[in-house]
Fold this sequence. Notes:
By secondary structure, this protein is of the alpha+beta class.
Amino acid sequence: MTLKTLLTFILGICIYSFCVGQATNEILLTKKLDSAFAKVFSNNEPGGSIFIQKGDKILYNKSFGLADLKTNKKFTDQTITNIGSISKTFVAYGILILQNQGKLSIEDSIIKFFPNFKNKELASKIKIKHLLTHTSGLPDNRNVEKDSIYYLTAKDWENFKPLLQTDSLEFEQGSQWNYSNPAYNGLALIIEKVSKMKWQEFIRKNIFLPAKMKTSKITDGNFPSKNVAHSYRKIDDKFEEYDYGEYPTFCAAGNGGVWSSISELRKYILALNNCSFANCSTIELSKKVWRPENWKSKNEPVHSMVWFVHRAIFDDFGNEKCNVIEHSGDQAGFKSHLIIIPEKDITIIWLTNNDKFITGAIRKILIELNYIE
Length: 373
């Protein structure tokens, strides 16, 4: 046997061993995930759908349980659910698209769009970028618990309007961070004021269509009627519907009004990667943390103009960190999470309607099998 033949033989064995090892690992991943989700979902109860991809390889794409307990319709990767605060990423991209069109700037003061602020001097210092990054300092003046009946039907304007009465900030704009749902109701209204159309229609034309997201929709105080899940919570060991009509602020759309599916959100990620609805410089900017010059918090900023962007520990001993770009959703009994790990070329998307958050179980198994070692 010549040296060249020997080397070719050895290389072939290595490639074969690698492929066999990889296939074995993928089988083990499926078994472990199936086992974990068997504890979370039952065939005759509310369910969910999970998608995991590494590069071009789909590692996991399965659905469990029911989308609707009344009709017994199964949950699939086509099932439309409310994605909660992942909706905010669409609103944010809508603002950035308008900036690219030269119709606004994230440096614009919000007083330009809402001149009826009680304290105009205060509002004049707050810019669109502060609303995008949850650093405006505007307190949430809504009294949702006291006025829960009112907020069952309140839309974007009704949820943002209380902020106009703000007379003092929680902190200087840009100096700290505090998550704000009504800030995104305000951003949705800004899209309407600038685009001269309902913001839902603006997002459909400028993001859904370029991304080929044909079944995704954004509600405007109503509930989708076709191929849609209901959400539930368990009370006294029994699942009860918990969404439209039961959960205050559910009708407000800017903070959580997008309805989509696993198959549609996969198109969203592909559109991001291909810069289909915004130029690549905008997409890249959206993945970078915004660091205000006047930042005073002891915690590092973790929000871009669109996403949460941070270094996450993927080792129980804290030995390695990876950049993670993500946004979760939590509205009534709907839970969701979209996670991108660029360094590992991994995308994770999951949706549930059983009031359960499942990222922890997925993370644990991916670490065990060295997908995010």
